[in-house]
Design brief:
Strand order of the largest sheet: 4-3-5-6
Shape: elongated
Order of helices and strands: EHHEEHEHEEEEEE
Number of helices: 4
Helix content: 25-40%
Number of strands: 10
Structural class: alpha/beta
Largest sheet: 4 strands, parallel
Length: 224
């Protein structure tokens, strides 16, 4: 809290300075000549110049705003296997506790899900982070943490493309022995007829390996 005086001159400072110089000269002549009433005229001139300077007195009360951190929690389909749900919950609880100990810091939690609709087939963690940052002033953004299994489908190719002005950290769920796998469709029919068998040939590819051929899946009556 503090008192401050500010000025917003009506005519601008140069015209006021000219008027002040002229008035001072006139008052000096009046004082030298001992003209009647020159002290009152000097007071009136000072009040006029003060009014043109348009002063204002303010009493400000300032309060420091808290920093805001964002935690993006990945709860997509790939996070539902094994002990990942429990690890994710433990990580979220640990983050909440750590932020409370920091003081003057607010934690905002954003959940990311996948498979909710036909078009929602990926983990859009950066999109969720962008939405969370839309109402956070840049000067209050402390950083972001993503709790995920690493399968993020909208990660920018370069770190600078994310547009983040604060640190971004990642907490990976799962175990060190886990490997990413993907299913590669080698052959599939262009169309299917209800009641007729259709054959799809696929293979499972391990990251960093040559891939192992998977059993043939038979597609019958619109169901796998």
């Amino acid at each position: 809290m503090g008192w401050t005086v500010s000025f917003a001159p009506v005519l601008g400072w140069p015209p006021i300075a000219v008027l002040a110089a002229i008035g001072l000269c006139l008052m000096a002549v009046s004082a030298y000549a001992r003209a009647r009433g020159w002290p009152l005229r000097s007071l009136a001139l000072a009040l006029l110049l003060l009014a043109l300077a348009n002063p204002s007195i303010r009493n400000e009360q300032r309060e420091a705003l808290s920093d805001i951190a964002v935690a993006v929690i990945d709860r997509s389909l790939s996070q539902q296997g094994g002990n990942r749900p429990g690890q994710t919950d433990e990580a979220e609880a640990a983050l909440r506790s750590a932020v409370q100990r920091l003081g003057n810091t607010e934690l905002r939690i954003v959940d990311v899900r996948s498979g909710v609709s036909a078009s929602d087939d990926g983990t859009m963690a950066f999109e969720a982070l962008s939405r969370a940052l839309s109402d956070i002033p840049p000067e209050r953004f402390a950083g972001a943490i993503m709790v995920t299994d690493g399968q993020v489908h909208d990660a920018p190719a370069e770190a600078g493309a994310s547009g983040l002005s604060a640190p971004l950290h990642g907490l990976l769920t799962g175990s060190r022995s886990e490997r990413d796998r993907k299913v590669v469709i080698e052959r599939s029919p262009r169309f299917g007829i209800v009641g007729k068998e259709q054959t799809i040939r696929a293979r499972v590819v391990d990251t960093g390996g040559d891939g192992a051929r998977a059993p043939i899946a038979v597609h019958r009556d619109g169901e796998l």
